[in-house]
């Protein structure tokens, strides 16, 4: 996921003289300036945020109170130039929140979250400022031909942003929306801190060597290393993050320990006590429903989807329902196969298949049916080599080269940095930071950040700074980190977000890079997953960690043959999360008991008892640590339809590295940011609206009789919006 904060190399004089805090200083040094991570002190965050907010408010007030008639240049463009100091401070603040969050920082975050929300409301609810924006918007509706397309798009995006924030409301309603936003900001922070606490505090201790039974050597090494790092006298320790739990559930032959690991992970935020999130969720849902009503929408879901490709919750639900039934049907087939294998291996006649058995027996069936052992595949997937493979792929498709640099400070010793250049001109297009490893205080999962958005306002080209962040577990010092096929796919996914940001070629930061509707933002990243399996990547970079030999073609063939294996499980766990998210936010103002709602809704959907949602409600940070993906988790499915259809454009042409198709992809998707309507951009690339056929074929599902087509939502013209700036693109 990406935090799209914009900053430029220059800043008002007041920022330069604001005080000694390095957080307030211009980003200096090479590459157009870089964050001074080596000078950051947690104690500086609060005063720096307060000083930067004061500076931006003065700039906004100057725009709002300008006696000159409102124009695009003195209103919308002026807003783009404002708040540069705050953008820089917020970028570093958000990095500490997601990557270095400890008790000291958490206390500051708890205090500042409502203040930041109130500050944003002061801007979006400023009547004088909105009157100027509205005046320019109305002028452009009449004289659109006189304005550049990008200027019109920026005005449209800003106008709708302010309307959805309550700019048109009367005084009392406007004040209530602001109060709700402040309360929500505090609850979002509390929710994410509760999940982080359970992830950091809870571990599975493997007491004896027997407890390591079935685990591959790489996972044994990681568990032993973690035990040493945490100073726990044991054979090994499994941390409470997906990167540790999923492989443990896949390989451990200790069923009781698998159950403990599964319960520990799926009960994050749902254990009672001070870190329980159920009451927090209830409050968030109530406040969101109230805010939506005040803003004139039936539900929060209708509010959130108004400016997306899907446009309406009904369109999103239609797509999910088309995929849900065939996914569940396939899941039942998968369970039958696994149950048969379990009994063949000696399971008792009354053996009941449980969720902590799924990954374990799925791997056994995969090996039996396709002669494919994921642990065998893992021997060829070295993290560093996969990174090099991504770089090579980016060179072929995007004409980028990656050069390691050591002349910039980093916020943790694990972080490495590369300069990204255009291969033809040698011109720098940005920097790429990579933070690959799990650690206490770091949010689990994988995501992309934008530290600085590409822009060329006032004719000055400002290059972007992006990062990818993962939670791989370190093994023995000096030995390569081996990752699973799923983890490698996620690596390519997040790199797709980074390439989206690096490819950006727009004028205004608000429209730059990944600042697009969520159900379109995930499209480039979902698409890039397809290149992992190409022979060009595998033959060069999938090298055995001991022999250096490339992955055998026979093994690649088995991977391809098994590509749709277990898609019932994968699709069901993801779509169930999306359906719960949407149904929670379509429930309106009714008071929700999250555990009960989740349980009863899943039962009504026919959720198989042998698996759990990919993100259970009490730990669903996509949805409850901010508004960004709320009523929007469907966007992953929506985007993967686009991605499957788009990859077909390559396979129908000269193959995955077809130059002409890649050029169209860059021109109409990756470079344009939010300067064009995403549906129009996709049509320009593909020559038509997307179809669901390619996705259903990829997953081995039958085609539905009726199709919901992303790009032709059922409620009229498709539109898009700028993504909220505090939202990350997260898998």
Describe the model.
The chain is α+β, with helices and mostly antiparallel strands. 53% of the residues lie in helices and 7% in strands. The protein contains 28 helices and eight strands. The protein has a six-stranded mixed β-sheet, sandwiched between helices. The protein has a two-stranded antiparallel ribbon with strand order 1-2.
In short:
The protein is of the alpha+beta class and 731 residues long. The chain contains 28 helices and 8 strands. It has helices at 13-16, 45-64, 72-81, 84-99, 103-124, 127-142, 149-164, 171-201, 217-229, 242-251, 255-266, 278-294, 300-305, 313-344, 355-370, 374-378, 383-398, 485-503, 518-528, 535-541, 553-561, 567-586, 594-605, 621-624, 635-651, 659-670, 678-686, 693-699; strands at 203-206, 236-239, 400-405, 416-422, 428-437, 447-452, 464-472, 729-730.
């Amino acid at each position: 996921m990406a935090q799209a904060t914009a900053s430029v190399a220059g800043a008002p004089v007041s920022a330069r003289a604001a005080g000694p805090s390095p957080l307030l200083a211009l980003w200096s040094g090479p590459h157009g300036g870089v964050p001074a991570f080596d000078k950051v002190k947690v104690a500086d965050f609060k005063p720096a945020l307060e000083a930067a907010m004061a500076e931006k408010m003065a700039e906004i007030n100057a725009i709002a109170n300008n006696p000159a008639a409102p124009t695009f240049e003195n209103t919308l463009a002026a807003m783009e130039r404002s708040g540069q100091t705050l953008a820089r401070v917020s970028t570093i603040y958000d990095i500490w929140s997601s990557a270095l969050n400890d008790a000291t920082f958490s206390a500051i975050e708890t205090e500042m979250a409502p203040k930041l929300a109130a500050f944003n409301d002061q801007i979006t609810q400023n009547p004088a400022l909105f009157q100027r924006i509205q005046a320019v918007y109305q002028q452009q509706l009449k004289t659109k031909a006189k304005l550049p397309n990008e200027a019109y798009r920026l005005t449209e995006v800003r106008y709708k942003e302010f309307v959805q924030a309550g700019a048109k409301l009367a005084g009392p309603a406007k004040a209530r929306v602001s109060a709700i936003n402040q309360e929500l900001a505090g609850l979002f922070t509390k929710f994410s801190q509760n999940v982080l606490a359970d992830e950091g505090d809870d571990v599975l201790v493997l007491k004896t060597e027997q407890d390591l039974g079935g685990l591959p050597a790489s996972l044994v090494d990681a568990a032993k290393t973690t035990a040493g790092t945490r100073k726990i006298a044991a054979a090994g320790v499994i941390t409470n993050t997906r990167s540790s739990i999923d492989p443990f559930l896949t390989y451990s032959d200790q069923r009781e320990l698998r159950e403990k690991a599964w319960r520990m992970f799926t009960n994050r935020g749902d254990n009672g006590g001070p870190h329980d999130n159920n009451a927090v969720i209830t409050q968030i849902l109530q406040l969101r429903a109230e805010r939506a009503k005040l803003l004139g929408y039936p539900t929060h879901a209708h509010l959130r989807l108004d400016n997306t490709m899907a446009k309406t919750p009904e369109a999103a639900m239609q797509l999910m329902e088309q995929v849900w039934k065939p996914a569940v049907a396939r899941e039942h087939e998968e369970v039958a196969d696994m149950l048969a294998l379990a009994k063949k291996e000696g399971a008792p006649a009354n053996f009941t298949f449980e969720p902590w058995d799924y990954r374990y027996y799925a791997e056994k069936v995969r090996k039996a049916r396709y002669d494919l052992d994921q642990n065998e595949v893992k021997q060829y997937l070295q993290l560093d080599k996969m990174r090099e493979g991504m770089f090579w792929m980016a060179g072929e498709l995007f004409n980028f080269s990656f050069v390691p640099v050591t002349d910039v400070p980093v916020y943790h010793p694990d972080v490495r940095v590369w300069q990204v250049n255009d291969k033809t001109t040698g011109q720098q297009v940005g920097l790429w930071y990579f933070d690959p490893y799990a650690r206490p205080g770091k949010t689990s999962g994988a995501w992309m950040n934008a530290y600085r958005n590409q822009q060329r306002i006032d004719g000055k080209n400002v290059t972007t700074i992006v990062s990818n962040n993962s939670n791989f577990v370190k093994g023995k010092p000096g030995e390569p980190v081996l990752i699973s096929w799923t983890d490698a796919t996620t690596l390519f996914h997040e790199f797709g977000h980074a390439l989206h940001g690096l490819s950006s070629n727009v004028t205004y930061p608000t429209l730059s890079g990944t600042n697009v509707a969520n159900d379109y933002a995930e499209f480039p990243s979902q698409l890039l997953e397809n290149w992992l399996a190409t022979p060009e990547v595998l033959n060069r970079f999938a090298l055995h960690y001991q022999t250096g030999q490339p992955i055998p073609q026979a093994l690649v063939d088995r991977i391809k043959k098994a590509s749709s294996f277990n898609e019932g499980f994968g699709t069901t766990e993801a779509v169930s999360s999306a359906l719960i998210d949407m149904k929670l936010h379509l429930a309106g103002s009714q008071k929700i008991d999250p555990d009960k709602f989740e349980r009863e809704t899943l039962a009504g959907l026919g959720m198989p008892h042998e698996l759990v949602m990919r993100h259970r409600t009490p730990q669903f940070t996509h949805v409850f640590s901010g508004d960004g993906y709320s009523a929007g988790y469907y966007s992953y499915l929506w985007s993967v339809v686009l991605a499957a259809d788009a990859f077909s454009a390559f396979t129908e042409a000269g193959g995955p590295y077809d130059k002409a198709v890649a050029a169209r992809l860059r021109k109409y998707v990756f470079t344009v940011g939010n300067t064009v309507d995403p549906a129009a951009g996709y049509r320009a690339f593909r020559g038509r609206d997307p179809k669901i056929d390619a996705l259903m074929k990829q997953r081995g599902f039958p085609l539905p009789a009726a199709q919901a087509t992303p790009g032709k939502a059922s409620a009229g013209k498709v539109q898009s919006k700028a993504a909220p700036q505090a939202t990350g693109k997260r898998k």
